[in-house]
Design goal:
Blueprint (H helix, E strand, L loop, with lengths): L5 H12 L1 E5 L2 E4 L2 E4 L16 H14 L22 H7 L6 E10 L5 E5 L2 E5 L4 E5 L3 E5 L1
Antiparallel strand pairs: 1-2, 2-3, 4-5, 4-8, 5-6, 7-8
Length: about 140
């Protein structure tokens, strides 16, 4: 049996002590109350037949504790809920780059997936068919960026 390090054990105890299940549809985590909606459909990653509260708790644990230290309370402000906003226009306006074909790339390897590994000036990329043009069979070509 593998033993758990004392630091990890303390971290896990701190997180578990921060969870209070209030009802089948609500819990408090790190001082923040989470109300689970009325939907009963299966959530991604949650086995069939399990309560939606488990999926919500799993998501909150991941958001707040995965690869982050936890002091005993959630300190960041709650989400504003605008995560579904379409940012396409703003990202396109902020992108100063232009699509182009870049010459001088060399095929380093052809992979079984249909991709090729190319190199140029110390840089390497993996490309799918349609992202490159070959000027000489297997030697050099242009990459679409």
């Amino acid at each position: 049996m593998t033993s758990v390090s004392s630091g990890l054990r303390e971290d896990l105890e701190r997180i578990l002590n921060a969870v209070t299940i209030e009802s089948p549809r609500a819990f408090t985590l790190g001082g923040r109350r989470v109300q689970v909606g009325g939907r009963t459909e299966r959530l991604p990653g949650l086995p069939a037949g399990k309560p939606p509260l488990l999926g919500a708790l799993q998501a909150q644990l991941y958001i707040h504790f995965y690869c982050r230290p936890f002091s005993g309370a959630i300190t960041e402000p709650p989400s504003t809920g605008d995560g579904g906003e379409d940012l396409t226009a703003a990202l396109m306006a902020a992108n100063a780059g232009q699509e182009r074909w870049e010459p001088g790339w060399y095929v380093a390897r052809v992979l079984g997936t249909g991709q090729i590994a190319v190199q140029r000036n110390g840089l390497s990329r993996l490309l799918w068919p349609g992202e490159f043009l070959s000027s000489e069979a297997g030697c050099s070509g242009r990459v679409f960026r």
